[in-house]
Amino acid sequence: MPALLSLHSEAAPTALLLAIASALLGAYSAYLVIDFRDASRHPRDSKKNSSSPSTHPIQLTDLTSSKLSTIPLAPLQPVRAGVEELIGNTPMVELRSLSAATGCRILAKLELANPGGSAKDRVALAIIEAAEAAGQISPNCGDAVFEGTSGSTGISLAMLASAKGYTAHIALPDDTSTEKVQLLETLGAVVYKVRPASIVDSDQYVNFARRKTNEINAAADAAAAANPEAPRLPRAVFADQFENEANWHTHFKHTGPEIFAQTDGGKLDAFITGAGTGGTIAGVARFLKSTIKRSPGSTPFRVILADPQGSGFYNRIKYGVMYAPTEQEGTRRRHQVDTIVEGIGLNRITVNFQAGEKYIDDAVCVSDKEALQMAKWLVSHDGIFIGSSSAINCVATYRTAKALGPGHTIVTILCDSGSRHLSKFWKEAQTVEPLESLDNL
Ligand SMILES: Cc1ncc(COP(=O)(O)O)c(C=O)c1O
């Protein structure tokens, strides 16, 4: 097109028409095969064409009615009223290479298919709706949602705040990658870069977000008390994903029932995932444990925690003690959970983890190297490109399948896409040798 625009002005309209015509023809040819075969191969036309080679007919084959595609056209979802209605009802896919290696049916729920790219869309929506129901915030009044997070929850809150008439305010450590800060700002969030500090410091980023929320609400309350007739001042809610029970409730109400329905009424033997806040495992485990009915004598349905190296959850489930080697005297680091993995692993018990702890039967600890190897395996064998926490889930799932033996169905979660982890996890993955067989894992 730029070449056409530089043509002499008289030629331009014709050239433009030609360009449009050729573009339309180009698009149409995606559906049609233009067959220039010699007419002699078409008995119906052979006579005519043998006498006049210059007028060979062009045979058009309509591919729209042929069976070239292997993708069945399922009933399509109705049009949604907004981005929030796209959250949940995520698809499930079989991880074929893991099924083949274990003799089990390994299924992955694609939480990465939520519009904000992770399961945190469900949590952000539940938290905003709970705050609205409690009268803490109202849309389009200048109200705000605060959170201290450098992870997926900030992205989901930023997306939903814009969609629902709020502003997201996200506090994070000032050494968070510029990539993440830019993403949040592009999504419309106000970002506060706070110096890294201990959780007991009032300026630690989570405490900072809580304090800012309280200041805004105190000002609004004071103004309303001084003059009840004065216009309402903006209010704020602190999302508090670790302690806010709207988090596990949404997984109990939605993610759990979806898994139940997608496995033909709960025909699964194990559910495996990691814990960051603990909301996913708590909500799903509570729902499935209370719903799945096993016939007497069959193996019980099990919930298994996948934990990265350096996290305390593994020891908590195995031995009842929240302890990680990084807690050892003299070895404490700035990042307590000493792993490349983001989003899961913790060294404290949260309200959301507590809500599901008694439903967790066992735990599997996975090293960074194993997670990197699994991520590389899945991208090259299944075409599935995942982030670090999902890779931990898949290693734990593979191990559990091997331990249970063939014939079992296991469901895990693919939390987010590898594209969120290019600069760290996937960069590191380039330094790891690919596995020749999963037996080496
Ligand atoms: C990428 C990713 N995976 C997994 C999780 C863990 O989910 P949950 O907080 O429900 O335990 C998180 C939590 O932030 C996450 O960001």
Automatic annotation (TrEMBL):
<keyword id="KW-0812">Transmembrane</keyword>
<dbReference type="InterPro" id="IPR001926">
    <property type="entry name" value="TrpB-like_PALP"/>
</dbReference>
<keyword id="KW-0496">Mitochondrion</keyword>
<feature type="domain" description="Tryptophan synthase beta chain-like PALP">
    <location>
        <begin position="84"/>
        <end position="416"/>
    </location>
</feature>
<comment type="similarity">
    <text>Belongs to the cysteine synthase/cystathionine beta-synthase family.</text>
</comment>
<dbReference type="InterPro" id="IPR050214">
    <property type="entry name" value="Cys_Synth/Cystath_Beta-Synth"/>
</dbReference>
<keyword id="KW-1133">Transmembrane helix</keyword>
<dbReference type="GO" id="GO:0006535">
    <property type="term" value="P:cysteine biosynthetic process from serine"/>
</dbReference>
<keyword id="KW-0808">Transferase</keyword>
<dbReference type="InterPro" id="IPR036052">
    <property type="entry name" value="TrpB-like_PALP_sf"/>
</dbReference>
<dbReference type="InterPro" id="IPR001216">
    <property type="entry name" value="P-phosphate_BS"/>
</dbReference>
<dbReference type="GO" id="GO:0005741">
    <property type="term" value="C:mitochondrial outer membrane"/>
</dbReference>
<dbReference type="Pfam" id="PF00291">
    <property type="entry name" value="PALP"/>
</dbReference>
<keyword id="KW-1000">Mitochondrion outer membrane</keyword>
<feature type="region of interest" description="Disordered">
    <location>
        <begin position="41"/>
        <end position="61"/>
    </location>
</feature>
<keyword id="KW-0472">Membrane</keyword>
<dbReference type="GO" id="GO:0004124">
    <property type="term" value="F:cysteine synthase activity"/>
</dbReference>
<feature type="transmembrane region" description="Helical">
    <location>
        <begin position="12"/>
        <end position="34"/>
    </location>
</feature>
<protein>
    <recommendedName>
        <fullName>cysteine synthase</fullName>
        <ecNumber>2.5.1.47</ecNumber>
    </recommendedName>
</protein>
<feature type="compositionally biased region" description="Polar residues">
    <location>
        <begin position="49"/>
        <end position="61"/>
    </location>
</feature>
